[in-house]
Design goal:
- With about 210 residues, this protein is an alpha/beta fold.
- It has a five-stranded parallel sheet with strand order 2-1-3-4-5, with helices on both faces.
- α1 runs parallel beside α4.
- The protein is globular and about 50 Å long.
- The two termini are about 25 Å apart.
- The model has no long low-confidence stretch (mean pLDDT about 90).
Amino acid sequence: MKASYAASVFINCPFDQQYRPMLFAAVFAILDCGYQPRCAQEVEDGGDVRIEKIRRIIEACKFGIHDISRTELSEGNALPRFNMPFELGVFLGARYFGQGDQAKKFSLIVDRERFRYQQFLSDIAGQDVQAHNDDPLVLIARVRNWLANATKRKTIPGAARVQARYRQFQAALPALCEEMALDPGDLLFNEYATVTSSWLRQSEALHA
């Protein structure tokens, strides 16, 4: 079942292997808070223009998480990757120039250090950029607290509760993947979201 605009969270972040623990931590936090994570990796279609896919996902999401920490130069051409700042700009533009639901978007901008962005993206000065210190548990707390503040929902579990459940899930993940004939070190975005959602439902049923 497709998530509604008000329940959808766009994740704008690096997709390399090094960042996977951070991406998957954010996915877990979003799902445990009762929302639906979405990103460019959810659909692989060689006939789709990437920016159009991103535009459609952004249009469908009220919330957006933007990690602008990846500023290193690539080994191949000694150039940085600008995808994350670019997609942040598209998301903010949808809010500033859009109408109706588009004008009600909320953003969480994160970096390794809170004020580091001032050295490479000073145009977003005034935004409340949060630090995650390259720590998945810190990112989980940032995502949880942001969603709780943005939505004013009283049913979102506390940060410590989400972190504890994440640690439990990480311990259970190898066995869950074996049951589903999946490799825990090579999970696709949709596969990870499916396994996480299944575990969360089972966990809630056990404690109901």
